[in-house]
Each structure stands twice: as structure tokens, then as C-alpha cells.
Design a protein that fits this description.
The complex is a heterodimer. Chain A is built from 9 helices and no strands. By secondary structure, chain A is mainly α. The longest helix of chain A has 39 residues, at 97-135. Chain B is an alpha/beta fold. A 6-stranded mixed beta sheet of chain B has the order 6-7-8-3-9-10, with helices on both faces. The longest helix of chain B has 18 residues, at 181-198. Chain B starts with a helix and ends in a 5-residue tail after the last helix. The chains are: A mainly alpha, B alpha/beta. Chain A binds chain B through residues 133, 136-138, 140-141, 143-148, 152, and chain B through 59, 61, 85-86, 88-89, 91-93, 95-97, 99-102, 112-113, 116-117, 158, 161.
Chain lengths: 271, 282
Amino acid sequence: MSEKKHSPLTPLLDWLQQLGRFCLGFFERLGRGHLLLFHIVSGIPGLAFKWRLVVFQLYSVGVLSLLIIVVSGLFVGMVLGLQGYNTLVDFGAEESLGTFVALTLVRELGPVVSALLFAGRAGSSLTAEIGLMKATEQLSGMEMMAVNPVKRILAPRFLAGVLSLPLLAAIFSAIGVMGGYFVGVDLLGVDDGAYWSQMQAKVDLHDDIYNGVIKSIVFGIVVTWIAVFEGYDCTPTSEGVSRATTRTVVHASLAVLGLDFVLTALMFGEG
Amino acid sequence: MTYMSNVNDKPLIEIRDLHFKRGEQVIFDGVDIDIPRGKITAIMGPSGTGKTTLLRLIGGQLRPDAGTILVDGQEVAALSTRELYQLRKRMGMLFQSGALLTDINVYENVAFPLREHTELSESMIRSLVLVKLEAVGLRGARHLMPSELSGGMARRVALARAIALDPMMILYDEPFTGQDPISMGVLLELIHTLNNALGLTSIVVSHDVKETITISDHIYLLSNGKVIAHGSPDELEKSPSDWAQQFLQGLADGPVPFHYAANDYAEDLLVTMGKHMKGGAV
């Protein structure tokens, strides 16, 4: 029996080898992801002649996500109304509740929570669908029929995701403002006129609403990109699809939260 | 006239000195294959010999490490994406699973390549789809979804889709695997009839020896990355290769041994008994 000789440096070398392999794998995937994004974006102009595909995906990705967005927006708005009132009332500033609810939603919670919900609802569904199409050779079959699956399958889904998320975030914020109104004005007795007039006076179209929209567009691109890439790049087995779906939710959520900080620092940092 | 006959005599697919590796595993190690026009050529060999990989190399979904694959005079690996897609419009491929699009029905599946690649009117597409479905006997099933089809029916629909654009050749990937005798008979009949009626060139990848031999004009046997034998079914039956005889007759033992490589059996057992006597673990 021959036994391997272990030097004291062996564990360190093994660790370095693993680290190197991990880094190479990471950058390889990152490269593949960017190449795929390039091919998807280059396929978007061609969708002008296949707009039905985009409309169908807008329904599948956007409209079917409405319920979770509306319900979550309502409850988040109601919680903001309650928490905001309890804090503001100590300073006699409860009439600023409308401003508080609206700014919190439009600047932060609308884009971020919508993106997180979107990653869980639509992102995972996109990954699973594309991954299963790969596992059942539907994508290969398309390639052999001289149909590019990146342009036929991925590009409409990507475009639909990018268009849907800003709209969903806007709906989330609007419903949240209504939820805050319901708790603050109807239940806790904040003045109706003050709620709306303070909001109107303090929420700025450029600084607040446009920046929120920019955030949700960026999140839409990132979440949908991760979702379609994970599906297209997955190992074509049931376990591979399952892992890819999990990765979509985890990576997209982390990317949204990380990017939110960066974007917030860029947009509101000076203030 | 002479020129035309020379062109038509040339094989549709010429594979020369093909080398292909997947990771460290050698799949093809210097393979030469000619696929004649208008014939049914079978590629056979045990599981894992790279038969499906060969189809993907012919279809340009994989690139060889070395060697050339000429399809109708064009080197597949050297084609641009646009040229490759043009070539694929003249190829049909029947996947083992059928690879039907699961979110559209049978009719739309067969209409899919027509809608993607032609500007035909809806009534023309309808007529063509019904003709193709009639050819595979499933005109009446056009409203069914892929999930409502049996395995054999799904492959027949996939076959109708593969011939939708009237290709010059069809690649069949394990068309008989997992089929009941009736479905298998139907598929055999269809492959044979379509090849003759449409003047196609067919490549059937399979390890169902008896069934494939009945419809093949030419057979290649692959193993360990090499062509072991090739010729007409009659020629192969007389092949001097022991391996070819073992494969064609389905013998349990031969050049491919029944036993996986191991130490001497008696020695192995004695070691076990010795360990028991000493009270050690096996």
C-alpha cells in the first residue's frame, strides 16, 4: 500500500487551487452571461416583426405578477402608514405622513420590493421554463430548425421583463400610497387634505419619481438577465433546473439589494 | 451531364479523420464516414459511443477538434452562423424525445418552421401542415397538445415537423428507443416510405440492431471512437470482425467482455476469507 506524502503546505495549496478554480469558473460564467446579454439585445430590434411574442410574455411575466405586487404593495403601504404615524405623532408631525409614505415607496420600497417579488415570481418561472426547454431538447430542436432560440425565446422574455418591472413598481408604489392613506387617514385620523397636499408639495418629479423609475429599469434588466441566463446556461437535468431556479432567486435578490445601495448613493448621496 | 452525375454520385456527407473529445474522454479518434445520397445509412454502436454526438457535429451544434465534415460540399465547422442556419433549413432532425414545443399544439408545432422561414399565406400553411400530418397518419390529432400524445405519436409529429420544409436529409436520433412493437413498426415504415417517396437521405442513429437493419442500405458500426466495420447489411453479417458479430448478434460475451476488468476471482475471495479469519473488516 502506497500512501501519499502530505507536506504541511498541502492544505494551503489545495485551498489555493480551489480558490483559483472558483475564480476561473466565476469569470467564465460572467463572460458567458455578458455574451448572452449582447446576443439578446442584438435580437431585440427583430422583435418589431414578432410583437405578438412580446405581448404574450408581457402577459406571462407582467400581468400574472400583478396579484402579488398589488397585495404586497397594499400591506407595505399600510405598515408604513402605521409605523410612520407612530413616529411622526411624537413630534406633532403626523400631517407629513403622506410625504413619508410616498417618498419611502417611490424612492426605495417600490423599486426594491417589486424587484425582489419579481425575481421570486417571474424570474424563477423564466429560469424554470427555459431550463426545461433545454432539458427536453426544445432549444436544440429550434437550433436544428434554423431558428435561433436566443432571439426567439430569450429576447422576448428579456424585453417583457425589462418593460414590466418599472410598471409593476409604479403600481406597487401607487397601491402602497393608498394603503398608507387607509391606515393613516381612515383609521388613525390624519387630515385628508394634509396627507395629499404635503405629498404633492414634497415629492419631486425629477429627484424622486424619475430616480425611482431609473432604479426599477436597472433592476428589471438585471433580474431578467440573470433569470434567462440561468435557464439557458443550466445543466439540462431536473437537478440542474432546480439549482438554476434557486440561483436566480438568490443572485437576483442580492444583485438588487447591492445595486440599490450603489444607485441610492449615486442619486441621493450628495443630499 | 457528366458533371451532374459526378455531383450526384458524391456522398452527401463526407467525414474525414474526425477527432472529438469531451473533457478528457475521447469520443472520436480518426473517424471516416461517407453518407450516400438518397439512401438510409445507419450509425450503430453501444450506448455512449457518441452516436448522438455525431449527429450534433453534422448539424453544426458541436465543432470537431480536428478533421472535416462536409455536408453537400460545405464544411460545417467553417460556416458562418448565417450560412449554418441556411444549411440547417435543408436538414431535418428527429430528436429522441421528439423535442416538440410543449406550449403549442400539434398543428402549430408542424407549422412552426413554415411560419419562421416562409412568407406563405395561412391557407397555404394549413394545407402543407395537413399534408405532412397525413403522411405520418396524425391529421386527426392536430388539435392535441404534446402532453396528450404517446411517445410514438410525439415522434411522428416531430417527423412531420422535420419534413415540413422538404429537407434534403433527415437525421434520426434513436427513433425506436422505448417504443412498443406497433409504434416501432409504424416508425420503421415511415422512415422507409418517406425516404423513398421524398428522395431524402436518411441517417438513423440506433442500437436497435434487428429493426434498423431491415430498413438500412448501409451501416456503420462505431466503438471506442473508431469505425469498427461498415457495409451493406449482408456484408456486415459476413464481417470477419468478432466485435461486429458480437454486437449484431447481441452476444453477452466476446471482445466486449461480460466481466468488468477485475483482479483474479479466486484471489479476491481468498483475501476476503483471510480478513474474516483475522477478524478484520471486509
